[in-house]
Amino acid sequence: MKLGAKQENTSALVEELNRVSAENKKLTEMLTMMCENYNSLRNQLAEYMNKNPVEKELSPSKKRKSESSNNNSNNIITTNGNSESSSTDEESCKKPREEEPIKAKVWKTCVRTEATDTSLIVKDGYQWRKYGQKVTRDNPSPRAYFKCSFAPSCPVKKKVQRSVDDQSILVATYEGEHNHPQPSQMEATSGQNRGMALSSVPCSTNSISSSVGPNITLDFTKPKSGNDNTKSAKPARTESPDVRKFLVDQMASSLTKDPNFTAALAAAISGRIYQQKSS
DNA sequence: CGCTTTTGACCAGCGC
DNA sequence: GCGCTGGTCAAAAGCG
């Protein structure tokens, strides 16, 4: 008696598992589609921005203000086709104030590193000098402050801190704009910095940041760069299955943080369960 | 020796 | 006004 009931239960569970797997696959496909649409839209935007450059005044105004303006950066700009959302929560978890004036060109990048790597180094092709480190209240990990040391007159600053959610992700916040070419490009590719020519990123995203501060996610730990042509604002569509999987994962994590999406998902799942029960 | 990093002190903005 | 906090400074230490 018990055995039969158990077997029935198991088969039901297996069936349920299969159904969930199928649904998961479907959702993954949807995410991939969304991602492709997003990329094409972004490319269109980049082209549009290239044709219609927006002049934006860079003024290193009051520190707190520029920081808070960063809170508006809820959209994600990706390079190398990777996206990251979990790491942007550090500040976006605070309710973004509406109609906040944008005062400085600020953008973020999220870099996945080895979790054991304790150094707060984000290799982006520029030379940085560390001038401070602080432990902030909202994050137990220390935040490092860097200035661009390649040109003494370069006003660009960078803050690097580990993500609260994922210790393997470094969140680098850039402020300002480089007034000099990228050192790694001048030195004609030292190898390690290749494929991460970020210099074009600020140019392509700053215009966007005039409305909202974009987040840029890079995964420098994956050696599959191969895109020496990242100079272009358009990412080369040469994503390997690994990259695509990572991308999908990140999209998924992004969506799961969206209350609307989770609500819709919950409704869909509960609807299916209810459907099964009633049948 | 010169450059970079570390780290405690200091300053300024913000909220109460 | 006061305390908290983030950002910066600058002296000391470390490193090549």
TrEMBL record:
Residue spans of biased composition, Polar residues class: 181-193
Basic and acidic residues compositional bias, start-end: 91-100
Bias kind Low complexity: ranges: 68-86
Main subcellular location of this protein, as a coarse class: nucleus
Transmembrane segments: none
Disordered, as annotated region: 49-100, 177-199, 220-243
Gene Ontology cellular-component annotations: nucleus
Stated name of the protein: WRKY domain-containing protein
Originating organism: Cannabis sativa (Hemp)
